[in-house]
Amino acid sequence: MAAKVAGQAFPERLRGGLHRWSTLQVNCSRPPEDAALVQELHEDGTLLTLACATGPGLEVRRKTGALVPATAEPPEMIVMAGEIAHLLTGGAVEPLYHCVRPARDVPERLALLYFADLDPSLCEPWVRNAFNRDAAIGERVLTNPTRFGLRGFNVS
Fold it and tell me: How far apart are the C-alpha atoms of 133 and 105, rounded to whole Å?
């Protein structure tokens, strides 16, 4: 992705840079009857998120602001860019804002999520411009999980 967006080769040091900094999560939701949303509109704050679920509910925001259903049945997955991809590409790759709405005919929904992040020490912009000039991208990799009530990464 780095080479495609920047139009140049990237060092081998990026290879394997996701291993320690990515997480796998399984979400089970059983929303109350009157719940408008299971998850509010957000972007994941990651480089990329790979997602699939056992039922409908995921909605993504289009550039027009409209929310539209997005579905992928296993073994298919939805790939969503996050804030880290946005910053590394100098704004060329937009984060995908999404929410999860309860489906009234689905009492339980399981979602498998892979949050892919890059080693913070490798988070030098792939495209440098005014958009990311002062961004501490590696620091955001470390702290973004706390935005969602999760533990940040341990660097020791």
Answer: 47
* pLDDT tens digits along 14-31: 777 887 888 899 999 888
Burial of 97 (0-12, 13-18, 19+ CB in 10 A): middle
Q: In terms of residues, how long is the chain?
A: 156
Q: Which CATH number is 76's domain given?
A: 2.60.120.330
The count of domains in the chain is 1
- Answer whether residue 153 is part of any domain: no
Q: Where in the sequence is the domain holding 128, given as residue range(s)?
A: 15-144
pTM score above 0.85: yes
At 61-70, the pLDDT tens digits run 999 999 999 9
